[in-house]
Prior knowledge:
With 163 residues, the chain is α+β, with helices and mostly antiparallel strands. 35% of the residues lie in helices and 26% in strands. It has a single domain (2-157), classed as Gcn5-related N-acetyltransferase (GNAT) (Aminopeptidase), CATH 3.40.630.30.
Amino acid sequence: xxxxxxxxxxxxxxxIINDGALAYRGVIPEDRWHDPYMTEKDLKxxxxxxxxxxxxxxxxxxIGVMGIQFKGEVTLIRHAYVRTSQRNNGIGSKLLEHLREMxxxxxxxxxxxxxxxxxxxxxxxxxxxxxxDEKNRLLKKYWSIPPRQVETSVVLASADWxx
Length: 163
């Protein structure tokens, strides 16, 4: 079942993000990895900046989360994670489809350039990789991330994205 997360879900969101992000350890540049991957402070900042988290639950247990952030003429999909023990069961696909249905504007997704599985996941769902020039412009315009993360990331766009 998919539902919007509430304030009381904060620690479950935090736990799922940090569990799911273990897949990045040893894959993304070493200088971008830290433990925990997302701190409590960072998660609070993301929520305060307008990221709405949605969860997937089975048997009352939250096992996946995905954020959506409305940025005027675009929608960003942010922080998509599924518990390590529950991966490859279609949970990410269900969350992504639900958030796509909520969006009335083109969707952009940023992820790590070295996270080949994440890129393939989004491509399987009809998103396309943008050029480096466009990626750099969009990451600076719509995301608040450090320059080093811009260097080591990619952006994917929904089919209705027009440069």
